């Protein structure tokens, strides 16, 4: 028993609509991914400011956080880890916002990001040596508190490395843009230099 023309037409419309929907979803996903890549420095700075603070909030109550500020001890207090992340992300985000194409390619953005990230990595590494060199003494106690401390230090370190990677990729991308722009300008300049000579040759040929 064969299919009628109406059923074939309905099936064709269905598969055509499905294919258009798949292509639309793919285009939207590609645009969203491109937006994430373009805005990576901003998203990373926001994550750097929020994630360590959220982890510290899980480790301590608000009362303990205030006591960490008043009775700060480099060997035991963890309040400085999210504070460093907040300052680091704020400085990098401000520099990124103030820089244009040439400065993003080779200039303050990459340099300041490297300085902030490397210095914060050194500080976090030194602090980790003191913190993990002694038994855990948090209000949660035991393995959970120690695992949360490890997560806090790892989060800050990974985000610092992420800043370096994103800044380097952004710098390379801006250098490629400037190179293409320079090639385009040189091509336009060459055309402008050749065009008057071509016009002069045409005039000479017409006068002969």
Strand content: under 5%
- Count of alpha/pi helices: 7
Radius of gyration: 29 Å
Given helix and strand content, the structural type is mainly alpha
Number of strands: 0
Which residues form runs of ≥5 with pLDDT under 50?
none
Return the string of H and E elements. Answer: HHHHHHH
Q: Tell me the overall shape.
A: flat
- Give the N-to-C terminal Cα separation: 83 Å
Largest sheet: none
- Percent helix, as a range, is over 70%
- Average residue-wise pLDDT: 75
Keywords: Membrane, Transmembrane, Transmembrane helix
Transmembrane segments: 21-46, 78-98, 110-130, 150-168
Protein name: MENTAL domain-containing protein
Organism: Brassica napus (Rape)
